Amino acid sequence: MTDTRIARRSLLGAAGLLATQPLQALAAPAKPRVTIQTAQGVIVVELEADKAPVTSANFLRYVDAKKYDGGTIYRASRTKGVKGAGSIQGGPSPRVRRFAPIAHESTRATGIKHRAGTISMARNAPGSATCDFFICASAQPYLDAHPGAPGDNQGFAAFGTVIKGMEIVRKILAQPTGGPAYAPGMKGEMLLTRWRSSA
């Protein structure tokens, strides 16, 4: 297993840029950024806190509480027949006490689609998401909400995008799989080497 750190991104080094920006640009608050450090490299995600406030705040709550410490990126779900397509999934250690599940923010409400680089919450039923997340290595529109479709058509709650490190996402996606599955739907997708995370 390899260590991964998940923490809010420092804004140090950005101060010098402020003097060159128009005054109007300073009025808009910066979007929260979170750094995911893995042994494979660094992934930086920018959260859409305005569009997906519940999901973004929940993710940051886990980050700030350091509940991702000792967690892993444990799953590589590949799209069959399409090289480099799919998503990676991670979360805290099973020993970590989760906060209560959050309300579901569908892509229909937020407008955030599952494209390459999108970070989204894993869930079972709508409203059951806690802290496990996934990052799309490719566009996955079937993960968006599809009102009118049969069954659970609410999709997953996308809440941000990768702004640095997509090559790391794809590198992890390509790692060997076949470990013990947490659920039948994950069979053949569990990474043999879990990319351990700490917040």
List the helices and strands and how they pair.
Elements: E1 5-8, H1 15-18, H2 23-27, E2 33-38, E3 41-47, H3 53-64, E4 71-78, E5 86-91, H4 107-110, E6 118-121, E7 133-136, E8 157-164, H5 166-173, E9 190-197
Antiparallel strand pairs: 1-2, 2-3, 3-8, 4-5, 4-9, 5-7, 6-7, 6-8
Brief account:
It contains five helices and nine strands. The chain is an alpha+beta fold and 199 residues long.
Could you describe the 3D structure shown?
The longest helix has 12 residues, at about 55-65. This protein is about 15% helix and about 30% strand. It has a single domain (about 30-195), classed as Cyclophilin, CATH 2.40.100.10. The protein is built from five helices and nine strands, in the order βααββαββαβββαβ.
Contiguous runs where pLDDT drops below 50 for at least 5 residues:
10-23
* CATH class bucket: Mainly Beta
Shape: globular
Name the average pLDDT: 86
Strand content: 25-35%
* Rg estimate, integer Å: 17 Å
* Overall number of domains: 1
CATH fold-level label: Cyclophilin
What is the first-to-last residue Cα distance?
16 Å
The major pleated sheet works out as: 9 strands, antiparallel
Specify the helix fraction band.
10-25%
Q: Structural class of the helix and strand makeup? A: alpha+beta
Oligomeric state = single chain
> What is the N-to-C order of secondary-structure elements (H for helix, E for strand)?
EHHEEHEEHEEEHE
CATH homologous superfamily (4th level) name? Cyclophilin-like
